[in-house]
Each structure stands twice: as C-alpha cells, then as structure tokens.
Predict the structure.
Amino acid sequence: MATGWAHDGAVQEQIDDTVSDGVQRARARMPANRESSEFCEECGEPIPEARRKALPGVQTCVPCQSELDRKVQHSMINRRGSKDSQLK
C-alpha cells in the first residue's frame, strides 16, 4: 500500500498501538486482586452479594461505578497525523 513517507507496516503499527492502549486502559480499570468490599467505597451503600460474586474485587456499587465510568477520559492521540490535526 502506498503510504507516502511512512515505512511498510506503519498503518498496522498504528492500529496495533491503538488496540494495545485500549487493552491497557481496560486492564487498569479492572478490580485489583483483592477481596470485594461489602460497602461501596464512594457512597457507603451495601454492595449486593450477586455483584460481589460476579466481579471479584469490586469496590463500588453499580450507580457509583456507572458515574465513574462516565468520567473516564479517552486518549486524544491522533496516530494518523492528518494535516487537520496538525493545524490545531
């Protein structure tokens, strides 16, 4: 594939790096290898036993975890380096 000045395989490297970053972010957000909390670390409400069994190491209730998930910021790295991104 003609990619201008990029070396062969550069596009696949960009794709691989993007996937790798996504996997690393997801792993960082997984519960640590520890005992589940009986009470939410955020609000103090009880965490249902079914949730604790389904997600070993869980530390938050569903509403608090949903709020934390909404606050996650995604990487704004533009690996393709388009001209438009360089003008900003």
User: Anything to note?
Assistant: The mean pLDDT is 80. The chain is about 45% helix and 0% strand. Helices lie at 10-29, 49-54, 62-70, 83-87.
